[in-house]
Design brief:
235 residues; Rossmann fold; 2 domains
Length: 235
């Protein structure tokens, strides 16, 4: 299984504040890689740097053979990476259908892509004419994921997709991530909660002070929960 996304010694930050310090990370083809770490460890900044929303000041970011390091932010989704930020960032005044249409425009995809995405989220098909701001939190998260998947990405970046959701909705989001893996989408998943991660992740990267301290197969964490406590202080 090859690496689809590679970060090699990436430095990045905001103005004078350096957040990432030699961040190295690999995402394998068809896997779910979870990034775990305390608040402020650099997880969200890593996703934003991959997307070109924060500029890397050193190191390189590659999607397969494509160098993303200096690509303008609007070009990164066209290269094949989709991003669902924390807080979803939908166009709340627009309908579900209109939000999906905006996603389709990124790479000029049409009806076939729309149908494929709605197959994953049948509840959205019933809500196409509804204003997205009136959806439940879980439905909004599904719409944010659906809009991102309209890019037909090789890689999907999800920043805390289960935050604030009910357990039943968390399970549905998790099932969707597993279904995407079957469709060949590789996912980077940022989570705070270990229990939300273990059922769906293949590997877990522990992020600390802007670095990837260690990446472990999820089986090792199931066998040894102490490892999680060691890195993030939670069980």
């Amino acid at each position: 299984m090859g690496d689809v996304l590679t970060l090699d010694n990436v430095d990045a930050g905001y103005g004078e504040v350096q957040v990432l310090r030699g961040m190295s990370l690999t995402l394998r083809e068809g896997e779910v890689l979870c990034m775990l770490g305390l608040n402020g460890a650099g997880k969200t900044t890593t996703l934003k740097t991959i997307m070109g929303l924060v500029r890397a000041s050193a190191g390189s970011i590659r999607l397969g053979e494509t160098d993303l390091t200096s690509l303008p932010a609007h070009e990164v989704p066209r290269a094949g990476i989709a991003y669902v930020p924390q807080g979803r960032r939908l166009f709340s005044e627009l309908t579900v259908a209109e939000n999906i249409e905006i996603g389709l425009m990124t790479r000029n995809h049409g009806e076939a892509t729309r149908e494929s995405v709605l197959e994953l989220f049948p509840v959205l098909r019933e809500r196409l004419k509804q204003r997205s701001g009136t959806l439940s939190g879980g439905e909004q998260q599904m719409l944010a994921m659906a809009r991102a998947l309209c890019v037909e990405p090789e890689v999907l970046l999800l920043d805390e997709p289960t935050e604030g959701l009910m357990p039943s909705m968390i399970a549905r989001i998790r099932d969707t991530v597993a279904m995407l893996r079957e469709r060949g989408v590789s996912t980077v998943l940022v989570e705070q909660r270990v229990d939300a991660v273990l059922p769906v992740a293949d590997r877990v990267a522990f992020i600390e002070n802007g670095r990837n301290r260690e990446t472990l197969d999820v089986e090792k964490l199931r066998e040894n929960p102490e490892l999680v406590r060691h890195y993030v202080g939670v069980g």
